[in-house]
Write a structure and sequence with these properties.
54 residues, alpha+beta, three-stranded antiparallel sheet, 2 helices, 3 strands, binds zinc ion
């Protein structure tokens, strides 16, 4: 499972992932190139982070 998130929604994204997977989430920052082509899963902002489970 993988979720993209902006600065605003990162806490929400982490909570959602933990709730769904029951595992500790891994949070990474997107590269500048990835940011341009990726949107937050919860709003229309550019994503800054990718949150994933193992
Ligand atoms: Zn957002």
């Amino acid at each position: 499972m993988k979720t993209y998130s902006c600065e605003t929604h990162i806490n929400h994204a982490l909570d959602m992932l933990v709730a769904e997977t029951k595992e500790f989430p891994i949070m990474d920052q997107l590269s500048d190139e990835e940011k341009l082509s990726t949107k937050c899963s919860y709003c229309e902002e550019q994503a800054t982070y990718v949150v994933s489970s193992k």
